[in-house]
Amino acid sequence: MNTVPLTHILFVSTALFFIGMYGLFTRRNLITMLMAIELMLNSVNINFVAFNKYLYPDKLNGVFFTLFIITIAAAEAAVAIAIIINLYRNHHSIDVEDTEDLKY
Amino acid sequence: MGTQIIFYLISAFVLGTGVLAVTTRKIFRSAIWLLFSLVGVAALYFWMQVEFIAAVQIIVYVGGVVVLIIFSIFLTQKSGSEMPKPPVKRTVFAVLAVLLGFAFSYRIIAEYGFTPATPSKTFTVPVSAIGEQMLDTKQYGFVLPFEVVSMLLLAAMIGCIVIAMKAKPTEKGIPVEKLPVKELINGPEKPLTIQEELSMEEKTT
Q: What is the residue-wise DSSP string for B125-179?
């Protein structure tokens, strides 16, 4: 089990984080940007669990952080989707380039 | 050896579906690739023997967040149509920024040299230990964040309902139940046009 070093798990989660960041940079649709953010949050969760498992196996703090992050991510996704639906109702578009009511 | 191979397979699965999720131009497929990626992350948790987190991941993400995203896609998008391609300049600079950031983090992680804890210790996460520590009021208990996060969920729920609630005046024109009151106060006059009605609503809300 411990044959896979911790750094490899960290590399995987870093790669996942930057994949999410790429999505956040290139997409201009609010829902796909939200998906990219979910990927980034997941990569952070992997980090927490891996650190907990490899460095502090007698504690549970990483697991708790992961649980709270999952909870807050769910709340965040729900609020974001409510905002997206409201935006679509007012603008008939959820492209970030079209939302310019706060611009001036 | 076997667990190693499983780990690399799961990682390749997660990263590949993640890349597809952020590069596919059909939004519904993007959501489905995200679903696969999240299932892969849950498999990674299973591999790390934190079964409870894996179960929570599947329940909350796969069962909740992705379904929510798919519903919002159905409510707001033509799910079959392709999204416009991002401009080449943006793609190039995003790839550059991402590669730079990844190289930076890679170097930091590779150079750091983590010292694992005593290798004899096994990492087991019994659900009862999680529950006891979660509701513990003593020093290392997590009861305060637990309560705070429950309040946050309540606030998020009410906020979602308030934000997504349909506004009373529809686009068809003057709301039916408002007209008699206005006529009572102002006497019969010309009915407001849609624009005036909308601007009035914006002022009051």
A: --HHHHHHHHT--STT--HHHHHHHHHHHHHHHHHHHHHHSPPSS-TTSS-GGGH
